[in-house]
Each structure stands twice: as structure tokens, then as C-alpha cells.
User: Which sequence fits this backbone?
């Protein structure tokens, strides 16, 4: 919405602080003081003269000469007075250097040298803190663009990609006080089909979205200068009067008037919040406990500058901030009930998640870091990891969790049997809880068991713990006559060594985060393996024919991953990290069979028993060939199958070795994961 303003300004006091005499009548237009720029508090004024750039302190009535060059022009001072940017004419015609002076030290820096047709707006070009400055420059004949200098990273980025036009107005880029929005004018096409007339636009830097402020007829061709308020929500500008009224006289159409427009608010992104230990694997992932460690997942959650998190308006302590995840501690003073989690990156882009604050919301941390599989547990006395032998009745374990310590009623079951919770204490890391448990002696020898924490009636994620010791001798029971059952398809017995660590068959499909299917291999051994002549092979769930992708000649080091890119089902999702091998196999998203083979010879049969098969994964309920007792779960367009413990788990049982999770493709450049016993 634009508002046409009729402005009348009455000046009661005009105070001069400079008086300049020209050297001669001929130089009277250049011998003087020009281009003033003032700080936010009105104390300091920067200006240019034929002797350089000066500062004037209106309180102390003191001049400071910043430069002594006649070529220094167009000073722009930040609202806080910390920085002055200016143009310095370069040796080459029509070029200039972009310069920066830090006013407290008068230290001068060259931001960019030899910039073609460098131009500042007539108004504000610098953010209030002086960390961002906008300007226009020529990139090709008849083609100027808007640029942003970011002092925090000492980097320059091009904000526009405008086409060429022989006749155009000056872009006159201006920036909001917070440095997050830029307004500019042009007669070239930006968002919609152009008619050759000038239009005003506002670019929102955090989102990259451009809003067209004016919709003027093609006969509007005059220069436009704009000014944004601090947060960029309003823009004042001059514009040809034909924008708001019919003008029959062609000579008057481009007479400027002053307008004020409201800019559309910045959209808020959508995010999800989880207990940082359970990560959605608990029965009710909508519950979050005060004082617990939580994880927000989304897009563009971090950028240059500080990322912040608030919960119902209360600031949270951040442990880690990345582009797609922020880990933080939920404020402890929150009351039970609905909560809004708001994460805002350094560019001001916010994302929102919803959850319910509950007095207790237990989550147990796992080795794989995904809320599933082996829990992070230590013997409380020896600080050693699993297996744990409770045979002497004195075994105490320390279970690392979050969202537990404030609960009144806490219980734990191991292998479905209750264990004695002795204490629950906060660990040295804020938000981390230690649960100390006495394990019953009768659990000895049960092997891998399920452990569940219940706090104030809320259950945690189900995790695993290995209970050692000698297994009890079972009482003999009569063996009934077996009921005839269909014989399962045989699964090949692979040699130990390399494993298939991840598969994703939804590449490019609707909702897929990546454009291509992929197969990931992992060397969990302590020796290097040469992949020369090896292959990965795929068959659909019940098929007898296999497709082959040969691997490159690479020696895979211990802990190293290897990424094989396959076909795509569409244009959805981003590109994979650089693959180590590329094939054309179209994998099914929800079911299939994948084999890692020491040769490139094509496998045959629905469930081949080839001695060259190193590893095999059957996934989806219809897969008729798999390792162990059952195929792995069915992935989808949005979920991959990942071998737990980052690839280190290998019990030769597809259904337990793999879990579902967001695709996480890793190639040979990824940080190695060394497996330990």
C-alpha cells in the first residue's frame, strides 16, 4: 500500500558550522563542502570537500580530517558513528575504490578496488552498526547490479541479477537500519514482465524474496530515491506523480512526489522441535521438559551473526547452531502447557515450532545419536561401557538422559523387568541427567535387552543395553510337533568386512530431500580394502534379475564411507555430495534388495548364494532375500535406511542392524568413523 504525502517543512533555526571561500571564481563549484552524512544521534557529521573527507563533532565543535585526497567523495557514516565508507577515484576512468574508515582509530581499509561505475545512493547506504553497506556497480555494458559488503565476513555478494538496458535510472540502493532489507529502483524486469517504466523494489536479504512496491505505467521514467526505516517495514520514496494520478501534460508526468509504502512482513519458516536424546523415537514426541536439552530441525536456522532461540519469549542457551539444526537448553522456568519455539538466525529469518511443555519428557541418549539402538550407559564404578554383568547383584549403571531430573516418580525396565532407581542427578553439562540404577542379578546372561525410562508417567525412547554374564539354564519343556510353515528364502552368508551402511530409493520423488537414489558403503574394519573390480547390485523385492554398478578403483581406509549415486525419480531435492561412483539403477523407495559384491559379475536368482557377496540388505516386507531373521523396515521418499552406530553395528540381521532416518549421504571425504568393540 502506498500513501501520497504532501510535505511542508518549516525550519526555525539553521546553524552553519563551516564557511568556505573559493580559490577563484572559476573553482567556486568545486571549492566547497558537500555530501553530508549524519549519525543517528545527530552528533557527528561526515562530509566531503576538495581536500578530502572530514568529520565534525557538533558537541565538541571539532573537525577531524579522515583523508587528504581530493579523489575521496560520497562519505556515508553509520548511525552509531563507528564507520565511514566513501568512494576513491581510481586510476582507470569510470572506476573507483570502495573505502572504509574506522572512526575510533581512523584506520583505513580498501573494501574493493577498481569497481566500474561505483555509486552510492543519495540517502542511507550503511546499516546502523556499519557492518553492511550497499552500492551499485557495472558488471557488463548497460548492466548495473546491486552489491552488499558484509564487514563481519569481509565479503561482497551480488544481490541482483538484472538484465541489460540501454536507458535506465540509477539503482540508488538503500539499506534498512538493521541491514536486512535493501530498496532499489530500475526500469529493467525484476519480478514481473516489465513495460520499460521505473519501479521500486525491496529485497529481503534473509529470505532472498523481492517485493515490487510500485506498479506504475511505462511512461514513469524519472530517478527514484528511497529510504527504509530501521526494520525495513516502511519505505519512503520520491516517484513520478503519474503513479497516483492521471497527468495529461506529458511534461508533468515525471514530476516527483513523495510516497510512503508498507513492506510485507518477513515470513516465518516452519521447524520441528524434539527431545535431543530421543529425537522423535519416544511414544509422545510432542512433549518437551523444562531444563532439558532439545533440538530444533529446519532450514536456514543459522547464518552470519548470532542465532537466538526463545521459548514462549524466554531466551534459551544454545549449545550448537547449524544450518539445519540448533541444539539448546529449554528454559527451566517454563510452566506446563503449549509452547512456541522461535529460532532466529543472524540475518533475522525466524522459524517456528510448536510443542507442549511437560514436567517430565525423558529421552535416553544413544551411541548412534538418533534416539535408537545402543544407549550411552557406563558402569558407575568402573566407567566402562557394555556388556554389563550383574551376576554379583552389585552392578550399578549410569544412564545418560535428559528431561528426567525434575520428575517425582521415575522407573526403569530392562528386558521388561524393573530395576531399582537409586538417584537421578544433573550432570556437569547443563540439561544432561544421570540416572543411577541397580541392576537385578537375575538379568545376567540375557544379552541385548530393551531399556525404557518412565518419568511422571511419560515413557522415553526404547533403547538397547547388553547384559553379560552366564545365561541361566532353562528348564526343559516338551517339544510339540511343529506346524508346517513356508520355508524362508535362504540368505547368503557374507564374509566379514565392508558393509552396506545406507540406502535411499526415493531420490527425486515427491518430498524427497535428495534428487538421486544412492547406496553407501562403509569400512568398519581396521584394515584398508581395495575396491578394484567390486560392484553394488540391485534387484526389486521379488525379482530374479540384478542390475550392476561398478565401483571405482579406490582403497577404502578404515572408518571411511563410499557413496554410489544411482538414478533419479524426478526433479525434487538437492544434489548429492560428490559421488565416488555413479550408476543408473532405478531403486524402489519402499522395498528391494541390494548386494555388495567382490566382482562385477551379475548375480542371478531371487536370493543368490554367491561366495563373492560381501554384504546384502533386503528391505521392505515383500523382500524375499535378506540377512538374518527378517528384512529391514521399509524406507520412503523422505526416509533412508541407515546402519546403526554410524555403520559400526553388524549382527548380520537386517531388521535390527538398520533403522529409518533422514538421508545422510557420506562420501570418501566425510570424517571417518572408527569402530571400537
Assistant:
Amino acid at each position: 500500500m502506498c500513501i501520497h504525502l504532501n510535505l511542508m517543512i518549516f525550519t526555525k533555526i539553521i546553524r552553519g558550522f563551516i564557511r568556505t571561500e573559493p580559490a577563484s571564481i572559476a573553482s567556486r563549484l568545486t571549492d566547497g563542502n558537500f555530501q553530508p552524512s549524519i549519525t543517528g544521534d545527530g552528533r557527528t557529521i561526515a562530509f566531503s570537500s576538495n581536500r578530502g573527507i572530514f568529520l565534525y563533532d557538533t558537541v565538541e565543535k571539532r573537525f577531524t580530517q579522515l583523508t587528504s585526497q581530493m579523489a575521496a567523495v560520497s562519505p556515508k557514516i553509520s548511525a552509531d558513528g563507528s564507520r565511514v565508507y566513501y568512494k576513491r577515484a581510481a586510476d582507470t576512468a569510470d572506476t573507483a575504490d570502495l573505502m572504509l574508515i574506522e572512526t575510533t582509530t581512523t584506520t583505513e581499509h580498501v573494501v574493493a578496488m577498481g569497481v566500474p561505475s561505483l555509486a552510492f545512493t543519495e540517502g542511507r547506504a550503511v546499516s546502523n552498526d556499519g557492518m553492511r553497506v550497499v552500492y551499485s556497480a557495472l558488471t557488463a555494458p548497460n548492466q548495473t547490479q546491486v552489491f552488499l559488503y558484509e564487514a563481519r565476513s569481509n565479503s561482497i555478494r551480488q544481490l541482483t541479477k538484472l538484465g541489460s538496458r540501454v536507458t535506465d535510472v540509477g539503482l540508488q540502493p538503500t539499506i534498512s537500519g538493521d541491514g536486512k532489507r535493501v530498496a532499489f529502483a530500475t526500469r529493467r524486469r525484476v519480478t514481473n514482465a516489465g513495460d520499460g517504466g521505473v519501479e521500486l523494489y525491496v529485497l529481503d536479504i534473509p529470505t532472498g524474496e523481492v517485493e515490487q512496491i510500485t506498479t506504475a505505467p511505462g511512461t514513469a521514467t524519472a530517478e527514484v530515491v528511497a529510504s527504509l526505516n530501521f526494520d525495513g517495514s516502511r519505505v519512503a520514496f520520491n516517484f513520478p506523480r503519474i503513479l497516483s494520478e492521471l497527468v495529461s501534460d506529458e511534461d508533468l508526468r515525471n514530476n516527483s512526489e513523495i510516497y510512503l509504502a508498507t513492506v510485507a512482513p518477513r515470513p516465518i519458516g516452519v521447524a520441528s522441535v524434539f527431545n535431543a536424546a530421543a529425537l522423535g523415537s519416544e511414544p509422545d514426541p510432542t512433549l518437551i521438559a523444562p531444563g532439558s536439552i532439545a533440538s530444533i530441525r529446519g532450514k536456514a536456522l543459522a547464518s552470519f551473526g548470532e542465532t537466538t532461540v526463545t521459548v514462549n519469549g524466554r531466551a534459551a542457551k544454545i549449545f550448537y547452531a547449524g544450518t539445519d539444526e540448533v541444539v539448546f537448553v529449554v528454559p527451566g522456568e517454563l510452566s506446563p502447557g503449549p509452547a512456541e519455539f522461535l529460532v532466529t538466525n543472524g540475518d533475522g529469518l525466524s522459524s517456528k515450532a510448536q510443542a507442549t511443555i511437560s514436567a517430565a519428557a525423558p529421552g535416553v541418549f544413544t551411541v548412534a545419536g538418533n534416539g535408537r539402538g545402543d544407549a550411552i550407559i557406563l558402569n558407575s564404578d568402573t566407567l566402562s561401557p557394555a556388556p554389563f554383568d550383574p551376576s554379583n547383584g552389585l552392578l550399578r549403571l549410569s544412564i545418560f538422559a535428559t528431561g528426567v531430573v525434575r520428575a517425582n516418580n521415575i522407573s526403569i525396565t530392562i528386558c521388561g523387568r524393573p530395576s531399582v532407581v537409586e538417584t537421578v542427578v544433573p550432570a556437569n553439562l547443563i540439561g544432561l541427567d544421570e540416572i543411577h540404577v541397580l541392576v537385578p542379578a537375575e538379568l545376567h546372561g540375557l544379552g541385548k535387552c530393551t531399556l525404557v525410562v518412565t518419568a511422571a508417567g511419560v515413557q522415553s525412547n526404547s533403547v538397547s543395553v547388553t547384559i553379560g554374564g552366564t545365561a541361566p539354564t532353562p528348564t526343559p519343556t516338551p517339544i510339540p510337533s511343529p506346524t508346517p510353515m513356508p520355508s524362508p528364502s535362504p540368505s547368503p552368508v557374507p564374509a566379514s568386512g565392508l558393509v552396506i551402511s545406507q540406502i535411499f530409493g526415493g531420490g527425486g520423488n515427491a518430498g524427497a530431500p535428495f534428487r538421486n537414489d544412492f547406496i553407501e558403503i562403509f569400512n568398519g574394519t581396521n584394515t584398508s580394502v581395495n575396491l578394484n573390480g567390486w560392484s553394488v547390485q540391485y534387484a526389486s523385492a521379488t525379482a530374479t534379475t540384478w542390475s550392476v554398478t561398478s565401483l571405482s578403483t579406490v582403497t577404502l581406509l578404515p572408518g571411511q564411507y563410499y557413496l554410489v549415486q544411482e538414478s533419479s525419480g524426478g526433479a525434487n531435492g538437492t544434489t548429492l555430495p560428490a559421488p565416488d561412483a555413479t550408476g543408473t539403477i532405478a531403486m524402489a523407495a519402499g522395498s528391494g534388495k541390494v548386494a555388495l559384491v567382490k566382482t562385477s559379475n551379475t548375480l542371478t536368482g531371487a536370493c543368490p548364494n554367491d561366495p563373492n557377496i560381501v554384504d546384502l540388505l533386503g528391505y521392505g516386507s515383500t523382500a524375499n532375500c535378506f540377512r538374518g531373521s527378517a528384512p529391514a523396515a521399509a524406507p520412503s521418499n523422505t526416509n533412508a535406511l541407515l546402519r546403526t552406530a554410524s555403520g559400526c553395528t553388524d549382527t548380520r540381521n537386517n531388521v535390527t542392524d538398520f533403522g529409518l532416518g533422514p538421508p545422510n549421504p557420506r562420501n570418501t571425504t566425510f570424517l571417518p568413523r572408527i569402530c571400537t568393540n
